[in-house]
Write the structure tokens for this entry.
Amino acid sequence: MPQIEFINVSKEYEHGSVALDNVSFQIDPGEFVFVVGPSGAGKSTIVKLLIREEFPNSGQILVNDEDVSMIPQEHVHDYRRKIGVVFQDFKLLESRNIFENVAIALEVTDANDHEIKNVIPNVLNMVGLSSKMFMYPRQLSGGEKQRVSIARALAHEPDILVADEATGMIDPDSSDTVVEILEKVNSLGTTILMATHDQKIVDKLKKRVIRIETGKIVSDKKGGKYRG
Amino acid sequence: MLGTLIFVISGSQTALRYLEQQAQISIFFKDDFSEENILGFKSRLEEDGRIASVKYVSKNEAFEIFSQINKDEPVLLENISPSILPASLEVKALNIGDLRVLAEEFSQVDGVEEVRFFEDIIDRFKFWSNVIYIIGFVLVAVFSLISYSVIIATLRTTIHSKGIELEIMKLVGASNAYVKNPLVYQGVFLGFVSSFIAGVAMVMIGVIMKLYNMFDYGLTFGFLPRLYIQPLVFSLLLFVFLIFSGCLLGLLGSYTAVKRYLKY
């Protein structure tokens, strides 16, 4: 059974632009999938639909066989706890240190202090930032900030990790580090969906690549490359 | 503002109630209408549900009152005897609105010489009391609306300043309640603090009234007949009411702000 399934999904925004046009694909548990394409192709829309920040105009999005659009509003937070999200702009709170930035993911689940103190050092260790636990975001490089963002996404051990242009604002070396971490996470069983237009990374990893252009899937290849 | 207006409204209503209670109809009888007939008429009036009390003033009592009023004019008193003063009934109505109807009814009764009551003064006071009442409630409504808007604006600022924090909370799986409740509590707290300050001011007014023996008989409202509350107790009740209404206003304002500005 696929873990993520887009069935004839279309999304048109209010101003009339078509972001996705009858898109269908399946992702199995434990897969690492790149969604590639030029800016405005519809990559971020797939991410937004998957985390239910947006609703499709038509079609179905199934995650673990559950129709995402049909999840009652009062249960959306439970659904989101199963999906870790990493954004291009990191979305870190400048007023909180690294430990606190990651802890927020557990605080919202009403985890107790003991649990938070146990989990956070482990996830920060996984992304190689345990020594910078009490530093503030302004004291970190772009790559390090993105690793904090990944640590936060992993804090409640999600089944799926979605990364939207996670390497878009960091230097190539840091990008390699970020992707290595994502590979490590994937090797532990987490499904990874990474929207990117970073050709170097896609070509290097030789994972499944779904290419999307003007809202339509133009290719979907395992062991693929950015340009097919 | 709400507290002050309630005090002013209650004060004017109390004064009106006092005047109403003092308002009476004096029924003067013809000389040939016997005391027996007057007392019979009095008994019938006492059974009328519209009438609060009836007092008989005999010719002799009328003379005593007249003498008391004119005690500095002995020449006048020498020429007056009890027999030329009319006996009368002093009638107090339960409701001031019935005075005119009762007066008209009494004037039709055989043996009644004249019926008098001070309708104009009471009507005028009643009019101004109602004006205070209406203006007061309009002002309360306006200021409540302003307070409501201030709470919404304050929370809008909070929501905007916490924009990224709220967005992150949403993305990492915070429940609606987790995000919204602190904002709602903030609105309620704002309402509580402002109403508490106002409430303390009202209690101080109550204490001052107590110290200077103002409204000793108690304060009242037009819609609560026969209920008089001592100013200090009144101010304490007002304190509780203000706290309750302040918190309620905060709750409503914060719910509105959260619904309008928190895209969740």
Observations:
- The longest helix of chain A spans residues 172-187.
- Chain A has a mean pLDDT of 93.
- The CA atoms of residues 99 and 121 of chain A lie 8 Å apart.
- Strands of chain A lie at 4-12, 18-27, 32-36, 58-63, 66-67, 83-87, 160-164, 191-196, 208-213, 216-221.
